Amino acid sequence: MKPLLLAIALAACANGPSQPTASADVVIAAERAFAARAAEIGWVPAFRAYASADAMLGQPGYPNAQAALAETPDDGNRNLQWWPAFAGMAVSGEFGFTTGPVSFDEARTPRGHYFTVWRRQSDGAWKWIYDGGVGPIEAPALIAQ
After folding, report:
1. Which long-range contacts (CB under 8 A, 24 or more apart) does 44-52 make?
2. Which of 36, 50, 73, 96 has its CA 20 to 30 A from that of 115?
3. Contact assessment for residue 51 and residue 37, using Cβ atoms and an 8 Å cutoff
């Protein structure tokens, strides 16, 4: 009888819901590509290119990013820089987030922190659906460990 119960238990585990292994590497790569593109073409066009159609900005009222960015003139600024310091991925592999420091000068002086939520699109590409953060801050300090 014990072998039969063991076989049933093993079959139940094998046929149960699977949890795909999701890596945050894809959202880290998307964030890095987004930041690199902003350095090349400016922050406004890069934000437009990487935002999903239903993306929201982390501003009062959470405006639609595409609509708000359509009304934002490209100022040519290439000094907005950011880099992911931490990232995570949903088990489903459909959503992820990145967060890290943001700088507004060529010296890459950290002046705030961004937080971006990413969603995998039907074509497999990653677009952000929320972008916000805190800053600018006068004297950012590292978090003590």
Report:
1. 44/69, 44/72, 44/73, 44/74, 44/75, 44/77, 45/74, 47/131, 50/127, 50/128, 51/127, 51/128, 51/129, 51/131, 52/119, 52/121, 52/127, 52/128, 52/129
2. 73
3. no
Asked if 69 and 56 touch (Cβ cutoff 8 Å), the reply is: no
Neighbours of 16 (CB within 10 A): 8
Task: Give the number of other Cβ atoms within 10 Å of residue 115's Cβ.
Answer: 15
DSSP letters spanning 104-128: -STT--EEEEEEEEEEE-TTS-EEE
Kindly report the pTM of this predicted structure. Answer: 0.77
Cα-Cα end-to-end distance for the chain? 54
Q: What region does 62 belong to: left with phi over 0, alpha with psi -120 to 50, or beta?
A: left
